[in-house]
């Protein structure tokens, strides 16, 4: 590993931020992008990476990840989660606050950052809780957490049900110019629901979660955003109607952004039946209808969706291998996102390669105001290299994540991550 | 009767949705031949001698479990009842561990009842034993639909072309789902009726008509099935009171008028007299409710027999 110079030769560099797409060499010096040019000659003390046949792009960022540390290290740790990130082509992850204890204080934020620095496979951007203990009652010490390095606030895993608290959060977060990220779900409408309410929940006899459980929360929050002038980000948006509301709010000039998860772009509620009640088809929000899925895909192309974020949610096999109704919600994402989007959306011509890269780098960086997301000279040298069309088979048993809960095990997909460079340092992911 | 081995290759009966009309026919015909056993002075045949059947009931059930138990005994199987209320998890042992422990004792068939949909399906992938679904949440209850069909066929001589109304808590009923699958496959028309708050979204996609009044639902019906209102779900009832429910959806002899003259009235039990069905109707000439119970044994004998013919490789 050379902390000095890395020269990436012969790749196709795509950087939507500079409107760049072509055969270029890229030189990294002192942890930053030094130069991009048609041909850069190798000088002394330079590690050369042959990128022939590969795409070279800004390091991918996933702004919705559960690293489970502290408290649930049997599911994932900062180390294994960031290893999974690196293996999946990501150089940065933002991690949610629903740890044990909840990341609602400076000390937990600092602990996560310390672990991240100790292992260093990817940048970690902690997201602090909105409310103390994520109980939805009183504001957490948002200012202290931001000062310690948190980049946004969210009670993700749970919604902020109390409209008054949400209003206060949207006001208070403006002091730090960070978005309030909502897990939009009216828990009364969800009830005991375990999958999307529709034809398939009816056929399977499983309690349904109506799309309106998400929609009414987003409608409420958009009104509060308008009144407060706050910055509002919708986590894992999953319905056509919610997307329409975000589109209208943006047209109105409100500071509203949203992310969509790969599984909501690729699978539908029918998957619960097709998989024979596999609990790896159970997550929140649930896999929605085909109509919703198609609308989300359109939202990627038309710019309504700001970024793709995986909601990487590790759970131990023993927790998932139970009755469908009893299994925890959530699936892994970091090690499948890139291949899934390439194979299912880019190769069929639904999404351009450039837009995909934007949705996975500049887009998420913009939502949270993170460094990175571009290869402009002088930017931090966070770079992802991936093969655009070589076929791989997803093998959960080989994941670097500590968990295995994916519905995509065994899927053959065209395109896969090859390497990441983090702050000018090539990340070596141990083979498994 | 045709050679069943030529037409049946399932070790499991998980739901009606998987079955072909030919398979349904075969079960009903096989049940006819077992029905006679129940009328003998010595009610026993050696069909399943030396086979072990476990009745694994994760949810309280008296009627279905007794029916399976009698069917197993009449077939000379060795049987074992393994009951636990609530989920296995609440007892500290996982479902999979419970199942694997049973597997280690090498049963031939496992009859399973569980409060959550899909549990028999997931166990069927793990266990060598044949799995018979005795009700999984609000998903399927295949032997109930089969015994209902058997009873209808006894009275009407056919299923094809009949108009069947099913009334009550459609959302939480496994009986209705299995019956819809079966009746549609066999050429009947199905109308479901009940309060809007108990009508699941998208039920039309299963090929049924939907009615929101009792009169609309039962008009010209050949068969009326009343579903049990789950009074134990008090507090989360989807209607204001039992009294109001009976006024709107309770079936009485008086209200039968819109149906066909030779209509039969069914109920999967246990009944709430005076809630979904009036006592005098339940005990009256239109009712075939106790016949359903009798036929349940024959149908379950047929299912146990057919599934015992098939041995799973590996698993």
Q: Give the helices and strands of chain B as they follow along the chain.
A: HHEHEHEHEHEHEEHEHEHH
Uncertain parts of chain A:
none
Stretches of chain B where pLDDT is under 50 for at least 5 consecutive residues are none
Number of helical segments with 4 or more residues of chain B: 11
- Largest sheet of chain B at a glance? 5 strands, parallel
Rg measurement of chain A, Å: 21 Å
Average of pLDDT of chain A: 97
- The main sheet of chain B orders its strands as 7-6-5-8-9
SS element count, helices of chain A: 15
**Number of beta strands of chain B:** 9
Describe this structure in words.
The complex is a heterodimer of chains A (432) and B (315). In chain A, 31% of the residues lie in helices and 23% in strands. Chain A has helices at residues 78-87, 106-119, 142-148, 163-172, 187-190, 199-204, 211-228, 240-251, 262-266, 270-274, 290-301, 317-320, 337-346, 353-360, 362-368, and strands at residues 5-15, 20-29, 32-37, 46-50, 55-58, 60-65, 90-95, 123-128, 152-154, 180-182, 195-196, 208-209, 231-234, 255-260, 307-308, 383-393, 412-422, 425-426. In chain A, the strands form three sheets. In chain A, strands 1, 2, 3, 4, 5, 16, 17 and 18 form an eight-stranded mixed sheet that branches. An eight-stranded parallel sheet of chain A has the order 6-7-8-9-10-13-14-15, sandwiched between helices. In chain A, strands 11-12 form a two-stranded parallel sheet. In chain A, helix 3 links the parallel strand 8 (123-128) and strand 9 (152-154). In chain A, helix 4 crosses helix 7 and helix 7 runs parallel beside helix 8. Chain A is globular, with a radius of gyration of 21 Å. The two termini of chain A are 20 Å apart. The model of chain A has no long low-confidence stretch (mean pLDDT 97). Chain B has 315 residues and is of the alpha/beta class. The chains are: A alpha/beta (432), B alpha/beta (315). The interface between A and B is medium-sized, with 21 and 28 residues.
